[in-house]
Backbone:
């Protein structure tokens, strides 16, 4: 019997992620935990494209190595606050983290930040909203 996925024309990355999120709790937990990293990665890539910079040129602006920029743009590692603060200072990207006890609505972020940001469960009982402008 053929695999159902093999019988379809092509599976997009989004479809594969959605399917895995629905079927693999461990993957889902890690995906949520890295949501802030992916948000920062998107903003860095957008900045680099708008400024027409290579990763090497952005690395020079940030005072880091090109592999460090590649790691940040991968969205696979949550950066520390010092790194985010430095990126904000150099690029002018506005970035916001809001940590909230899980299950409770944030009182500090605006509706726009909640709607446009990404929510993640980082640790037991703590959710974070990461938004950028």
Residues:
């Amino acid at each position: 019997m053929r695999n159902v996925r093999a019988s379809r024309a092509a599976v997009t990355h989004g479809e594969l992620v959605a399917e895995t999120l629905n079927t693999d709790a461990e993957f889902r937990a890690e995906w949520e935990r890295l949501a802030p990293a992916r948000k920062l990665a998107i903003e860095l890539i957008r900045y680099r494209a708008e400024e027409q910079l290579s990763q090497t040129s952005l690395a020079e602006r940030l005072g880091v190595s090109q592999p460090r920029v590649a790691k940040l743009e991968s969205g696979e590692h949550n950066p520390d606050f010092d790194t985010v603060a430095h990126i904000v200072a150099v690029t002018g990207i506005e970035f916001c983290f809001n940590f909230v006890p899980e299950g409770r609505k944030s009182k500090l972020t605006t509706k726009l930040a909640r709607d446009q940001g990404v929510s993640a469960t980082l640790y037991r009982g703590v959710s974070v909203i990461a938004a950028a402008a």
